[in-house]
Amino acid sequence: MNATDSTGIFHPPAPATLEQAGLKSDVVEQLVLKLLYFTGELTGAEMTRRLGLGFSVFEPCLEFLKQQRLVEVTGASVFGGASFRYRTTDAGRMWAAGVLKQNQYVGVAPVPLEQYRRYILDFKKTVPLRADRDSVRTAFSDMVVSDAVLDAVGPAVNFGHSMFVYGAPGNGKTMMAHAIRGLLAGNIAIPHAIEVEGNIIKVFDPACHEELPLHYDDEKLARGVPYDRRWAHCRRPIVTVGGELTLDALDLRYNAINKLYRAPGQLAANGGVLVIDDFGRQRCSPRDLLNRWIGPLESRIDFLTLQSGQTIEIPFIVLLVLSTNLKPTELADEAFLRRIRYKIFAESPTRGDFIRIFENYCKTREIPFERHVVEYMLDDYYRPNKIPLRGCQPRDLITQALTLAAYLGQPARLTPELMDAACRSYFVHDRELPATYA
Q1: Shortest CA distance to 252 belongs to which of 295, 290, 213, 302?
Q2: SS3 string of 58-127?
Q3: Quick check: 175 and 349 in contact, CB under 8 A?
Q4: CB-CB contact of 316 with 266 (8 Å)
Q5: How far, in Å, CA of 176 to CA of 149, rounded?
Q6: Mean pLDDT value across residues 360-382
Q7: Angle 90-100/25-39 helices, nearest 10 degrees?
Q8: Where does 157-280 show beta strands of DSSP type E?
């Protein structure tokens, strides 16, 4: 049973037996043989670290492999089997080569699908979403956002369902999505891999899962490692997909060479946030993409398909954020917009907001903030050229001005001249091209 300990960690406990691990002996025997096939020779303790299972859990599998003359002991010790050195025999290597044709997974022992289902559902009940005004303002403290937007974000997060974040480009919609992840309390355990009737689905991905250390107190160390190390202890995930997204990418991705599956974005994001960035610009139509989410948003269950045609059920405990600079009414009909309960407008900054963003980024870059410089830029460049204010512009223009200053050998300090030059190189103006380019 999963439990939250005194440190607030909600992590599956270490299994004491193969039965508790939920794995058939042949799955573990194959993993051991493949591991020794590639490494040559390992101690029992080294196998423990690589498999994420206690030695006593897989020791019966080792004994069986020894009896079948597939594995042999090359070095013994008075400290017992965990300190023995093991390697495959010639027959074991031949057997491992045959197993590798089924799949080439070598690593931490997988978690059965049913154990994963139970964990995710228990996690949802045990670690609820509880964003309040103070926590929302803390999460968004690095951004200049109106109270109206902040008070829309909090209830949307607590609802834990889905939201449209829309508005003009450059107003921080992607930053808002990442700030929303900071409102999700607690950490989560992510399995390195899931096993479904002999099929292996790789889930943990360092590109989108931020692994955290597990801390053990002395009492727990005396009893042995208390946590199931087949699971990585991580921050709540945030997975972002953009214009490259296709409908196929939302199902299990099968590699015909290594015979392994990779989890789609929504499975990798379970317990966290899935951001569909630049929604409406994907390689599939918005309607098809929205139709793909209607079922999971209603039932909180997603269906994925194996190569065999078998369909598996996965809990869909994901906060779905659709970020777009297009009008939601142009992307979806009324029926679907009703299912996306919260619509958050990322409004353009006011003049005062723009100056505050400018000041904040000056602090980030550790340069003096001089109000007259930004006011000069707004009055003498923005207003005459009718340039709309966007939240990203202070960062971009300051960076451009400092890059020019370094090129000219000037000190890292903003001046009206530098900001003029930055604006001229940053903004596009509709000018008449010379005849030679027409």
Answers
A1: 302
A2: HHHHHHHHHHCCCEEEEECCCCCHHHCEEEECHHHHHHHHHHHCCCCCCCCCCEEHHHHHHHHHHHHHHC
A3: no
A4: yes
A5: 10
A6: 94
A7: 110
A8: 162-166, 188-191, 193-196, 199-202, 231-234, 238-241, 253-255, 260-262, 273-276
Q: Of 371, 428, 412, give the one whose Cα is nearest residue 394.
A: 371
DSSP of 388-433: PP-TTHHHHHHHHHHHHHHHHT--S---HHHHHHHHHHHS----PP
Query: Domains of the chain (ranges plus CATH)?
Result: 24-107 (1.10.10.10), 129-186+236-345 (3.40.50.300), 351-426 (no CATH)
Give the per-residue pLDDT at 6. Answer: 42
Rounded Cα distance, 179 and 275, in Å: 12
Which neighbouring-strand residues pair with 190? 232
* Nearest one of 253, 44, 237 to 123, comparing CA atoms: 237
Q: Which residues contact 26 (CB under 8 A, 6 or more apart)?
A: none
Token pair for 331: 């992307």
Q: How far apart are CA 244 and CA 268, in angstroms?
A: 17
Among 4-13, 275-284, 368-377, whose mean pLDDT is lowest? 4-13
Mean pLDDT value of segment 101-120: 95
pLDDT of residue 27: 94
Q: What average pLDDT does the structure give for the chain?
A: 87
CB atoms within 10 A of CB 61: 23
- Determine contact, residues 171/199, Cβ cutoff 8 Å: no
pTM of the predicted model as reported, rounded to 2 decimal places: 0.84
How far CA 160 is from CA of 32, 61, 124, 234, 237, in Å, comes to: 41, 43, 10, 19, 14
Q: H-type helices in 162-299, by residue range?
A: 173-181, 218-223, 265-268, 286-299
Instruction: Please state whether beta strands 319-324 and 162-166 pair in parallel, antiparallel, or not at all (unpaired).
Output: parallel
* Identity at 208, one-letter amino acid code: C
Pair 411, 389: CB distance under 8 Å = no
Contact 189, 10 (CB under 8 A): yes
Q: How confident is the model at residue 215 (pLDDT cuts 50, 70, 90)?
A: low
The β-bridge partners of 255 are 260
- Name 349's Cβ contacts closer than 8 Å, sequence gap at least 6: 144, 171, 357, 389, 390, 391
Joined tokens for residue 223: 């009893």
Report yes or no: 100 and 259 within 8 Å, Cβ to Cβ. Answer: no
* Cα Rg of the chain (Å, integer): 27
* Max Cα-Cα span within the chain: 89
Backbone angles phi, psi at 73, to 5 degrees: -90, 130
